[in-house]
Write a structure and sequence with these properties.
457 residues, mainly alpha, 24 helices
C-alpha cells in the first residue's frame, strides 16, 4: 500500500498541475495595472521558503520568459515576476541562476529598451552572491569574471575601433559587414543597464571586471551634459559616474590608476578630459583609503600635473580645476617642488608673433611653448583658487608670479584675469585681515592689477 507521504506528494503535484496553467495564462494576459501585483505575489510566496517545495512554480516561470508572445511589455513582465521569486531565494538556487544566465546570454542584444533594463536588473540578482570573503569557499552561483570574459569577446569590434561611436541608430540599421558591430552595440547597451542597476544593489563592486570596460566607456561618454544625446552615450556617462563612486580596496587602487594612466595617453581628448572628472569623484569617495597609500597619491599628483600640459585647452582647464580641488581638500599639498615646477613652466619663452591669416588653420594649433607656459599659469591659478578664504604664506608670491603674465597672449591672459577676479571676489569680505600677509610692494602691485584698465578690458 502507498505510504501517507506518497499520497500527500501526489495531492501537491495535482494542486500544482491545476495552479500552473492558471498562473501561466494570467501572466500571458498581464497588464500595466496588474504586473506589480503579480511581482509582489510571487515574491511573497517564495519568501523564506524551501525552493524544493516550490520547484513546480520555478520551472513554470523559467519556461521561455522571453518568447515574444504579447510583445516586449509581457516579456519584461515575465522577467520581473521571475526575478521577484529568485531574489527571495538568494543563495539557495544556484542551479536555476546558472540556467537563467545561459538562457539570457544569447538574448542580451535586445532591441527593446524596457526588456534591456529588465535583463540588466535580473543580471544584478544573478550575480548578487558573487562576493569574495576571506577564509571562505566561492559561492556556487554564477561568477561575474567568467561572464565578463564572454562579454568582452563579443565587444571586441568596439574595443578595437579607433573612431568614436557617434550614432547607434545608424549602426543598428546597417547590414552585412556592420552586423557584428551592431550586435556589439546592442550588447553594450544591455551591459550598461546591468552596471547601472547593480551599482546600488550589489554587496560589493566588481572592480577588476569593470576596469575592462573603462577604455570603451571613456571613448563613448560625452564631455558635456546634453539631453539630446542618444541612450548609449547617456548610459555610458551615468555608468562612469557610478563606477567612480565605488568603494576601492587598497589592492585595487594600483589597477585603477594604471588603467587611468593608460587612458590618459589616448588620442581622444574627450577620453583624457573624462579621466579627470572620473578621478575627481574616485578620489573624493575613497579619500582616506588613497591617503594611506603614498604611492597612489604621487601617481594621482603626476597624472593631473601631466594633463596640465595637454594640447587640448579643455583638458588643461579641467586638470587645473581637478588640481585645485585636490589641494583644497588636502589630498595634495602645495610644496616647494610643485611651486618650482609651475614657475619653471611659466618662464617658457614664447616664439615671436608672426603675421598670419586670421582664418588660417595654423592658429588653431597652439605651439608647444605656449602650451607649457599656459600649463604653468594654470598650475599657479589652481594653487591660488584652492584657498578661497585665507591667504597662506606662499600665495602672495604666486600672485606676483601670475601678474607678470597679464599681457600674455590668449588663452593665458584670460586665465590670469579669471584668477584675479575670483581672488578678489572670495577675499573681499575679510580683506583687511588678508592684506596683512602682503608686503607694501606686493599690495601696490596687487591694487594696481585689480583696479587697472586692463583688468576690466
Amino acid at each position: 500500500m502507498p505510504c501517507k507521504c506518497c499520497g500527500l506528494l501526489l495531492q501537491v503535484e495535482q494542486l500544482w498541475g491545476l495552479l500552473c496553467p492558471l498562473i501561466r495564462k494570467a501572466l500571458s494576459n498581464i497588464t500595466v495595472e496588474t504586473y506589480s501585483d503579480w511581482g509582489t505575489c510571487i515574491a511573497t510566496a517564495c519568501e523564506s521558503r524551501d525552493p524544493r517545495k516550490l520547484h513546480w512554480l520555478f520551472e513554470m516561470l523559467m519556461e521561455s520568459p522571453l518568447n515574444g508572445e504579447g510583445g516586449s511589455f509581457v516579456d519584461a513582465c515575465r522577467l520581473y515576476v521571475l526575478q521577484g521569486g529568485l531574489a527571495q531565494q538568494e543563495w539557495r538556487v544556484p542551479e536555476l541562476l546558472h540556467r537563467l544566465l545561459c538562457y539570457l546570454e544569447p538574448k542580451l542584444t535586445q532591441v527593446y529598451k524596457n526588456v534591456r533594463e529588465r535583463i540588466g536588473s535580473v543580471l544584478t540578482y544573478i550575480f548578487m552572491i558573487d562576493v569574495n570573503l576571506p577564509c571562505t569557499r566561492p559561492a556556487a552561483s554564477p561568477r561575474i569574471g567568467h561572464f565578463m570574459q564572454r562579454v568582452m569577446r563579443q565587444l571586441k569590434p568596439l574595443m578595437e575601433a579607433d573612431e568614436e561611436i557617434q550614432n547607434h541608430v545608424v549602426e543598428e540599421n546597417g547590414v552585412g559587414e556592420q552586423d557584428e558591430r551592431t550586435q556589439a552595440i546592442k550588447l553594450l547597451k544591455t551591459v550598461l543597464k546591468w552596471l547601472m542597476a547593480s551599482a546600488g544593489r550589489s554587496f560589493s563592486t566588481a572592480v577588476p571586471e569593470q576596469l575592462q570596460l573603462l577604455p570603451l566607456l571613456f571613448k563613448i561618454a560625452p564631455v558635456e551634459n546634453d539631453d539630446s544625446y542618444d541612450e548609449l552615450k547617456r548610459d555610458a556617462k551615468t555608468c562612469l559616474s557610478l563606477m567612480s563612486q565605488g568603494l576601492l580596496y587598497p589592492e585595487q587602487i594600483p589597477l585603477v590608476l594604471s588603467m587611468l594612466k593608460e587612458i590618459a595617453g589616448s588620442s581622444s581628448w574627450h577620453a583624457r578630459y573624462t579621466v579627470l572628472t572620473y578621478l575627481q569623484t574616485m578620489v573624493f569617495y575613497n579619500l582616506f583609503t588613497l591617503l594611506s597609500h603614498a604611492a597612489a597619491v604621487q601617481d594621482v599628483r603626476w597624472l593631473v600635473i601631466g594633463l596640465l600640459e595637454d594640447e587640448q585647452l579643455e583638458v588643461r582647464e579641467m586638470a587645473a580645476t581637478t588640481l585645485s580641488g585636490f589641494l583644497q581638500c588636502n589630498f595634495l599639498s602645495m610644496d616647494s617642488p610643485m611651486q618650482a615646477h609651475f614657475e619653471k613652466l611659466c618662464k617658457t619663452r614664447l616664439p615671436k608673433k608672426r603675421k598670419r591669416d586670421p582664418g588660417s588653420a595654423v592658429d588653431t594649433i597652439p605651439p608647444a611653448d605656449l602650451v607649457k607656459r599656459h600649463a604653468g599659469v594654470l598650475g599657479l591659478s589652481a594653487c591660488i583658487l584652492s584657498s578661497p578664504y585665507d591667504v597662506p604664506a606662499w600665495m602672495p608670491q604666486l600672485l606676483m608670479d601670475l601678474s607678470a603674465h597679464l599681457n600674455d597672449t590668449q588663452p593665458i591672459e584670460m586665465t590670469v584675469k579669471k584668477t584675479l577676479s575670483n581672488f578678489r571676489r572670495t577675499h573681499h569680505d575679510n580683506w583687511q585681515e588678508h592684506k596683512q600677509q602682503f608686503t607694501d610692494d606686493q599690495l601696490l602691485v596687487l591694487t594696481d592689477l585689480l583696479v587697472s584698465p586692463c583688468y576690466y578690458a
